[in-house]
Amino acid sequence: MDIFEKLLKHMGPIGEHSDRAHGYFAFPKLEGEIGPRMKFRGNEKIVWSLNNYLGLANHPEVRATDAKAAADFGLAAPMGARMMSGNTNYHEQLERELSDYMGKEDTTLLNYGYQGVMSAIDAVCGRRDVIVYDAECHASILDGLRLHPGKRYVFKHNDIEDCEKQLRRATELANAQGGGILVVTEGVFGMAGDQGKLKEIAALKDKFEFRLLVDDAHGFGTMGKTGAGTGEEQGVQDKIDLLFNTFAKSGASIGAFISGEKAIINYLRYNMRSQIFAKSIPLPIVIGHLKRVELMRKYPEMKAKLWENVNKLQNGLKARGFNIGKTNSPVTPIYLQGDIPEATAMCLDLRENYNIFCSIVVYPVIPKGQIIYRLIPTAAHTDEDIELTLKAFSETKAKLDEKVYQVAEIPMV
């Protein structure tokens, strides 16, 4: 069989709907200045799908810094991989400032978050090592685990008793084959919005020998007194051995970083294949990151405004009887019941008749018969945005319950 013929016969559980979904439910195009209100198909929508938590995407100082850096250096500089010819004083300055912010000895920059965390796992763990990880870890972590040639054990989401059970299994195996143990979890789980139980996992170090890697992509800038993340929020920042963060959320940019002990970060710097064999982050991005970190630390009122909006939205949803799960972060899921055609019909109604644009999650990401709308409040949203959204969801939920959205298939758009 021609390998391409096989692909075209089986587009995948999401791709099989591409003829109806593309450009609307999948790969939509939001236009205009990044913010809580943008254009979709020519009409203004209230947008809840952007991880621009602190509203930095269009902050005037950020825009000015980005523009000046691009004018000064262009997007080519520096040329080459960081190790070979792509290092600069700006890259090293950013790493020092991030280390200070995170309360860690050292930091190394990563071109992208997804491949960065995969490469970190690959660099740390060999075939004799054992990985223990939370069942709801991000796809980037799961793909990193797929690269691991050794054994891995999964524990039920945020279930410390099961985590301890898997650590016992991992310890027995690691001792038998002369390896170590890496525990991997998240600071804030990006789908459900609940914090990882970092404090409880860190306490297990009293019983077991392991190192802890935390993906805090959604916690950086949003959690903790200073915005240093979920480890700071839970008082265990010093117990996290490898702290991974991305600039794609609160930083409103691209790229990532990993922080920890100086010797270990230096090991990663010289052994992470995704960084050794890839071009260095362009200078305008790095200089833009420096400004973003400066603003995060200088203006705590941005995080305060974010949380003001988070509480208004989440409390408003709960007051109207919506199930938002166990979120204790800005990530705001709305759990509903319905099949895929119903979900898409409801989403269509929200976008076209209520001008609400938010992300919808259905099977195969979650079990059949379930619908999740994931809303991301930001510091830039207004009270009017929140009130109009609460009204829209109340009215469309009533239609869902009354079976108004029951259709045979995904609507054509």
From TrEMBL:
* Single annotated GO MF: transferase activity
Needed co-factor(s)? pyridoxal 5'-phosphate
Alphabetic keyword roster: Transferase
Signal peptide (from-to):
none
Cite the Pfam families for this sequence.
Aminotran_1_2
Domain of life here? Bacteria
* Protein name from the UniProt record: Glycine C-acetyltransferase
InterPro entries linked to this entry:
Aminotransferase_I/II_large, AON_synthase_class-II, PyrdxlP-dep_Trfase, PyrdxlP-dep_Trfase_major, PyrdxlP-dep_Trfase_small
Question: Which Gene3D superfamilies does UniProt cross-reference here?
Answer: Aspartate Aminotransferase, domain 1, Type I PLP-dependent aspartate aminotransferase-like (Major domain)
Q: Which taxonomic lineage is given here?
A: Bacteria, Pseudomonadati, Bacteroidota, Chitinophagia, Chitinophagales
Positions of the Aminotransferase class I/classII large domain: 44-392
> Which organism does this sequence originate in?
Chitinophaga eiseniae
